[in-house]
Amino acid sequence: MAWHKAASVSQLDDDEVVGVEVAGTPVAVYQLEGQYYATHDICTHEYAKLSDGYVEDGCIECPLHMGLFKIATGAAQGAPVEVDIATYPVKVEGDDILIDLPEG
User: Fold this and answer.
1) Deepest in the core among 40, 46, 85, 102, taking most CB within 10 A?
2) pLDDT for 4-54, tens place per residue?
3) What's 65's domain CATH number?
């Protein structure tokens, strides 16, 4: 695992998401109630960027078929999504939001 800068605190307001590429991995970074989270940015149902979706009640809604994932855990919330999305550890240092990605 290795820490990488993914975004800046100043880029996100509460209940917002931003899509970034970190070390070749598409990542969605979120702020929910002052906490930061990171998930893989691609829906497990069909190819769509979750960062183009909507944040509501702690979930991200895929913009393609409206599947929901819990942001904090990556858990799929029912049809049409059945496979969870990966989540990544997050820490904040100053204005930097860092995520811990698996190496390789």
Assistant:
1) 85
2) 999 999 999 989 999 999 999 999 999 999 999 999 999 999 999 999 999
3) 2.102.10.10
